[in-house]
Amino acid sequence: MKDIILEVRNLSKNFNLHLLGDKAVVAFQNVSFTLKRGEFLGIAGKSGSGKSSLIKCIYRTYLTTYGEIIYYPDNGNPIDLASCPDEEIIDLRRRKIGYVSQFFGAIPRVSCEDIVTQALIQQGVNKDEARNSAQNMLSRLLIPKKLFDAYPSTFSGGEKQRVNIAQALVKETELLLIDEPTASLDKPAGDIVLEEIFRLKKRGTSVIGIFHDDKELRGFADKILVMEGEKGARIYENDK
Amino acid sequence: MREWILKVEGLTKIYPAPAQNGRICPECLKSTANKCVSCGSTIAVASASFTLYQREILGVMGESGSGKSILVRSLYFDIIPTFGEAYLNRERKNIFQLNSQEKRRLKNFNMGIAYQNPHLGLNFDISAGGNVAEKLLVANWRSHSNIRKRLIDLFEKTELPLNRMDDFPSTLSGGMQQRIQIAKALANNPEILFLDEPTSGLDLSVQARLLDLIKEIQQELKISMILVSHDLGVLRLLADRILVMKEGRIIESGLTDQILEDPQCHYTQLLVNSML
Lengths: 240, 276
Ligand SMILES: Nc1ncnc2c1ncn2[C@@H]1O[C@H](COP(=O)(O)OP(=O)(O)OP(=O)(O)O)[C@@H](O)[C@H]1O
Ligand SMILES: [Mg+2]
Ligand SMILES: [Zn+2]
Hints:
- The complex is a heterodimer.
- Chain A is α/β, with parallel strands linked by helices.
- Chain A has helices spanning 51-59, 86-95, 112-122, 127-140, 157-169, 187-202, 214-220; strands at 4-17, 23-36, 40-45, 66-71, 79-80, 97-100, 175-179, 206-210, 223-227, 233-237.
- Chain A has one domain (4-237): 3-Layer(aba) Sandwich (Rossmann fold).
- In chain A, a hairpin with a 7-residue loop joins β4 and β5.
- In chain A, α3 packs across α4 (127-140).
- By secondary structure, chain B is of the alpha/beta class.
- The longest helix of chain B has 18 residues, at 204-221.
- Chain A binds chain B through residues 15-19, 56, 60-63, 85-91, 107-109, 121, and chain B through 1-2, 51, 53, 56, 208, 212, 219, 237, 240-241, 253-255, 257-258, 261-262, 264-266, 269-270, 273.
- Bound molecules: adenosine-5'-triphosphate, magnesium ion and zinc ion.
């Protein structure tokens, strides 16, 4: 098994806004870094510097404009996440790569327990075990039991975000992408989320995370990537 | 990676203009709009190629007239395509070249369809249960009690009230008519389900329950589906991937979240923006 899990090479993302007369918007340019297995890469940078866009390119929510995102699975051949077929991405999302988005688009009429359970069933876990793990994860993230069968569309911002986090963390994927997971949480809930992320990291999950709180970031990132939009990005080791 | 179940290559359907006596002209194939500039024939679907993978829901979106229905109805053999190939289950034979008996077999055992217009999918002269039973009879179900059992099973699966089984389709609500179409489509455990605008024309709460049902069916029965809808909200909820059609052409395709958040074509950006 290779000790590197992800190698991002000269990655750029531009948007071509056809509705605004083909206006070009640069999200970020020429970003390169490598992530070792089990490492925690924190992403920093000003608002609009391309942090979320970078994570979305890795997850294929955005199409990469230039560059490569070479992913080395624990078994099998390297895959360029920037150019591999959609079907391969669907598969990786089910089993290998988790994502917590900055904003949670709740699925209407699916209870929060079902959302989290579903994430595991897609990974091939059997129904009862999946439900059990889902309930445990929701409890650990301080979602009260009486909300388990309620729809997240009716939840508070913080509760929604914790369901969003639960469905990503419950899977114990190889690679976890997280975009400001704690931004809408109070301190106790935020701390628990960080603890959970750490528990996964201990088990070998590699993490790429955006945190708007610099203290949080410096507290636990192994490396920090500072995004500067059109000017590229700098990466440095974080001596904690 | 998952295996594919249906592969479509170069599917084209051209309706010759009346003056063309059923023929197309050489310019038809070079046309970039959905009317041939030279002879006026309608190019309903132009060289559509795509793959449906096992257990996925593939959404097809685009405005009305973009060729979505013609595309799925060609695959169900309702419409004979002008050109094109389609392969099922890694079999080497182009299904458009099968004889009518072989095609009927695929329709009876491998595929199911629910049409936008229930009059296309249901026989309004026989009962709701009779409509579903017909599909069992063509698959050689003979025992009366087994058929009855299977009907109950299908009605329950599609959340149809059992006491409406003997009613005629015309006495049922639009949502129920769609459910009967789906029950009928599922009768012989198909591998592929085609859904053509399954929820259009239904009011919102009925729509919502039908969408839930489709999701449940897909998860429980692990069927692959092609879901045609001009409603991005429906596709966001159900589709794994989306094909975007415009004037008979697939102009882009991608993962559902990618199409919604980072659409590439002018037309798709317009569609997505008008939804938000
Ligand atoms: N889907 C999109 N379509 C068009 N432009 C986009 C899209 N997403 C992001 N952008 C643009 O790309 C640039 C980078 O945005 P991004 O969301 O990656 O910033 P960020 O660093 O995550 O900011 P924040 O800290 O505010 O979350 C911005 O100029 C933004 O407007
Ligand atoms: Mg962001
Ligand atoms: Zn012509």
